[in-house]
Amino acid sequence: MTLRSRFFAMTYDRQIARAEKAGLRAYRQGVLAGANGHVLEIGGGTGANLRFYGPAVESLTLTEPETPMLRRLERKARAQAPAATVLRAPAEDLPFDDDTFDVAVSTLVLCGVDDQPRALRELRRVLRSGGQLLFIEHVRSTDPELARFQDRLNGINRFVVGCDCNRPTLDSIQEAGFTITHVEHTTLPKAPKFARPAIVGSATAPVRVPSRNAQLAAGDRP
Length: 222
Fold this sequence. Notes:
Blueprint: H1 3-32, E1 37-41, E2 57-63, H2 67-80, E3 85-87, E4 101-107, H3 116-126, E5 127-138, H4 144-161, H5 169-175, E6 179-187, E7 197-204, H6 212-217
Parallel strand pairs: 1-2, 1-4, 2-3, 4-5
Antiparallel strand pairs: 5-7, 6-7
């Protein structure tokens, strides 16, 4: 646990408060309206999404890799979602069996994971066949001039807030095998220009066709 991680966790809610009021909260509410069944949220942070999970959610599991954030997440979960399970785990190494969840949620997380392709492979693995990934992420701009500006500022951004502002996350989601079902190209309210481009949407995990042996074991016959 570093002084930087403790300070970031302690000040995160204040840092993002203006963005939440200006529209980020509405994005969260809209995206999470689609959460149902057994739900996994990675990078739960300080629990900003907790209030938006509805009665269609049968079980909620939240992971968070940073201990200072995890402590705040645990406290908020006890108050707002006492039935939720909260675990310390990085997105790149999720401690769950294959095909465990119906829905996975990532909000402002894939910009900061150490290995984005690996994190997405893990999400695909733990989602059931045809499961959903719900996301809100800030991304690399499609405007070449702004993208170059993001490249120039990325080092400072990573030092200050611990994430990359120039990741082509939508492409990465597709490259991991997900099918984009809905995406809105938008901006993060009150964010600096270089961190403003964003995507909000959903994607579907690949439908896995059962093997011949699995069909026979389940009682399927020609």
